[in-house]
């Protein structure tokens, strides 16, 4: 309506100018009348200029105080600079992390995503020495909020804020050392800038704090999302994606000694560098090679930085290896081999690990059945006094998936085998049954759990069988995967090694229920 009236105003002004001009030309009026004519022409030109400014921005003028809300002025300053038709608001894809995506002109993009996760757990008495003779139950809660801003298709940034807490872990004025502290467990999980495809290369560069990448099925490098905190490191990561290849390299600081409450020195630092190359030219297959270098300061992780004589020294190790993964019809298969070498104080490192998996997927309409079996080995040390460290260290793994959900085993000094069944009655629901068996590679070495160790100090064990574990669990996603449930029960049956050592020799149970809401 406003634009139509403006057109009529301009047209009327033009007709008026034409009529007056013609009358003056016929009657031969004085120069004063000619000046008035020029003034009328200027007004018409101004109206036309303002009309073009409004139309060029796709917006009408701001209503003034005219009758029935019609504009009494045309002010280009009040015109919105962006056409609302250029703004797209949509739901994010899985690759984008769901959430809300706002696409703006000039390739600018905003994304907001959030996740709330609760997990209740019951754990039986642990096998750590000395034995605690007690079970425990608790509830974990984790909140994450992620903000992405793309200045353009090539330049952007991400910030992820995370709050991780255990229900009831703050005493809030009752008793204890943390009297009324209630310190928020809130921190920055990610905060980095990213450059994409500089000079039109298939390249991405990230600098800042970022989640640890998931490399090689997460056997050695994982962000450990199962943990209520997860893993992040600070540094730079470069990813290159030429046709048929996927490559990444990173240089990171995992721990800075000077940042501790009690200041340390450079010998407290933990640095890690890595390169991972994957060839994907064969359809449904991956052939990978990797190498990781790590420096662990001599005041950190004493078990890793002490030699056979008990002397402390920085650990400098390399972990190099290969991996393959593929599918052929219903069959799938993968395997990995890693060799670890380096030095700790006066000792040399020489350790290895390998794993092989074979399975098949059978589809019956919308239903699906998955069957798989795996065998894995990680070397142990037969003699802790010979100046050679032969116990493999798995770096930053996802042990919870590979070595039983009770987290009783790290991939160190271990032989393991498993058999897994998974069934999808509908696409959104899966039912799982996993059976694991565990043996020590060397009885003279330790049983390495996640967060504990157990040793046959009396040399009483004459069998390396540690035990077997059964994991029964389900995964269910609803409301377009915005709400996910994961729950289950596990039972561990101790073997001869456990019955021959230590005070804790009975079975152990564990149960959990987790709910994740993403929006």
Helices, strands, pairings?
Layout: H1 2-27, H2 31-56, E1 88-91, E2 100-103, E3 109-123, E4 136-150, E5 155-166, E6 186-196, E7 203-211, E8 232-240, E9 245-255, E10 270-279, E11 285-296, E12 315-328, E13 331-344, E14 347-364, E15 367-378, E16 388-389, H3 399-402, E17 414-426, E18 429-440, E19 447-448, E20 453-454, E21 465-478, E22 483-494, H4 496-500, E23 508-518
Parallel strand pairs: 14-16
Antiparallel strand pairs: 1-2, 2-3, 3-4, 3-23, 4-5, 5-6, 6-7, 7-8, 8-9, 9-10, 10-11, 11-12, 12-13, 13-14, 14-15, 15-17, 17-18, 18-21, 19-20, 21-22, 22-23
Helix pairs in contact: 1-2
Architecture overview:
- The protein is mainly beta and 519 residues long.
- The protein folds into two domains: 2-78; 84-518, Porin.
- It contains four helices and 23 strands.
- The chain has helices spanning 2-27, 31-56, 399-402, 496-500; strands at residues 88-91, 100-103, 109-123, 136-150, 155-166, 186-196, 203-211, 232-240, 245-255, 270-279, 285-296, 315-328, 331-344, 347-364, 367-378, 388-389, 414-426, 429-440, 447-448, 453-454, 465-478, 483-494, 508-518.
- The chain has an 18-stranded antiparallel β-barrel.
- Strand 1 and strand 2 form a beta hairpin.
- Helix 1 (2-27) runs antiparallel to helix 2 (31-56).
- The longest helix is centred in the N-terminal third of the chain and has 26 residues, at 2-27.
- The protein is globular and about 120 Å long.
